[in-house]
Amino acid sequence: MLMRTDPFRELDRLAQQMMGPGTWSRPSVMPMDAYREGDEYVVAFDLPGVTADAIDIDVERNMLTVKAERRPVAKADEVQMELSERPLGVFSRQIVLADTLDTEHIKADYDTGVLTLRIPIAERAKPRKISIGVGTGHKEISG
User: Fold this and answer.
1) CA angle 34-37-42, nearest 5°?
2) What is this structure's pTM?
3) Which residues touch 38 (CB under 8 Å, ≥6 apart)?
């Protein structure tokens, strides 16, 4: 149901980890899982430490864009940071959705740091039986 368009996505992800936090002009990639569950396509994004109001989801035609921002936690003046490995900044992911998905009825839930999008499969894409009519004979088309 998803179409991969960027064969260098993993290389970009590694480069972004080395270059520091993402910005709005150069966001970091967020990890995701995508799978089919019954008549829905499910996409789950890992966004630990991100508040729900810092997540933006857009769909334009068949392009789904998810952006999120993890902001630093306010610390007291006397705190001295010893280790900081959790990435901060802007995270983004764009995926091309197949025409067989109903982008008008996407549902989004955010729970325990995981954003889950449920995208119904369009009725026209579901398997269906075709009945066979029995004719009374052969018909000729004359011109």
Assistant:
1) 35
2) 0.68
3) none
Instruction: Supply 122's token pair.
Output: 């369009």
Q: What is the residue type of 77? A: D
Write the DSSP string, 29-95.
E--EEEEEETTEEEEEEE-TT--GGGEEEEEETTEEEEEEEEPPPP--TT---S---S--EEEEEEE
Gyration radius from the chain CA atoms: 23
**Residue 124 region, left (φ>0) first, then alpha (ψ -120 to 50), else beta?**
alpha
- What is the mean pLDDT for each group of 10 consecutive residues in the chain (143 residues)? 60 60 63 92 93 94 91 78 78 90 95 96 78 71 63
- Report how far residue 22's alpha carbon sits from residue 61's, in angstroms, rounded to the nearest whole number: 26
